[in-house]
């Protein structure tokens, strides 16, 4: 009886292999195309004492860094570990939602590689101490070489504490 069981299993395995070869039913990983590149959503949210500010797709507050001077990303290495930039993957586009304006979105070269989303030419960053959506613990901090502020949907820097 064990020989019959073995032959049955062997026959089933061979039949499955033949079926896969004949039907081409082998699961292959899908090739990633630039059309499948994800968009980076920049939206808005009301934050107490600050008003409506820019946030990422997870509702995390986005900040600008005064030393960037609306010209280039200057927060790198240790700074970027504390203030992670809003990265734009190759082939991805920044997309406005809520009160954010598409016309103010852009990107800048990141010295660490890739691109960073900009708003009214300000590179955008999150803050590691903001542990939940709607927090703005980085507002008006003088940290890592300069001040950090949130931005209004108009692109105006909000300097309120």
Description:
It is built from two helices and eleven strands; from the N terminus they run H-E-E-E-H-E-E-E-E-E-E-E-E. With 161 residues, the protein is an alpha+beta fold. The chain has one domain. It is globular, with a radius of gyration of 25 Å. The N terminus is likely disordered.
Gist?
The protein is α+β, with helices and mostly antiparallel strands and 161 residues long.
Give keywords.
161 residues, alpha+beta, four-stranded antiparallel beta sheet, 11 strands, 17% helix, globular
SSE layout and pairing:
Layout: H1 2-23, E1 40-47, E2 51-55, E3 63-65, H2 78-82, E4 87-88, E5 94-96, E6 105-109, E7 115-119, E8 122-123, E9 141-142, E10 147-151, E11 157-158
Q: Supply the number of structural domains.
A: 1
State the distance separating the first and last CA atoms: 82 Å
- Can you count the beta strands? 11
| Structural class by sheet pairing and helices | alpha+beta
The share of residues in extended strands comes to: 25-35%
Could you describe the largest sheet, including whether it forms a barrel?
4 strands, antiparallel
How confident overall, as mean pLDDT? 84
What is the helix tally? 2
Order of helices and strands: HEEEHEEEEEEEE
Low-confidence stretches: 3-36
